[in-house]
Amino acid sequence: TVNSEGVITGNFTNGQNQVLSQLILSKFDNPAGLEKVGGNMFNQTLNSGVPTDAEPGNAGRGSLIPASLEGSNVDLAKEFVDLITAQRGFQTNARMITAANDILGELVNLVR
User: Do 34 and 44 contact (CB within 8 A), yes or no?
Assistant: First the structure.
């Protein structure tokens, strides 16, 4: 489990609980200077400055909300477009195989 201070606790099958680690949040002097890598990932640059780390809720850092679920960061419209594109590609390939099979059948009939 993770609590609001970022402490990660392991709950084991023998009933024991043990603190495993703690999450640390970083803050940049110029967040607009971060380089977007893709999705929700960024790289530090000279323009962004050096990150300063602190525990959640301290020194202007955000807070954590335990037992909450993150909303999906998947673009459903893009995924459906990709799915339809893949389906059409599959249908086209299936038609090509059927056409090739028909042509081979005609060739066999011509040889007879």
Answer: yes
CA nearest 57: which of 111, 112, 3? 3
For the chain, 112 residues long, the average pLDDT of each consecutive 10-residue run is: 88 93 89 89 92 84 80 84 96 96 92 78
Let me know the angle formed at the C-alpha of 17 by 71 and 64, rounded to the nearest 5 degrees.
30
| Nearest-angstrom CA–CA distance, 23 and 53 | 10
State which H helix or E strand residue 102 sits in: helix 76-111
| pTM (two decimals) | 0.48
Return the domain boundaries, the chain. 1-66, 74-112
Residue type, 35: E
Cα–Cα separations (whole angstroms), residue 95 to 83, 91, 102, 103, 107: 18, 6, 10, 12, 18
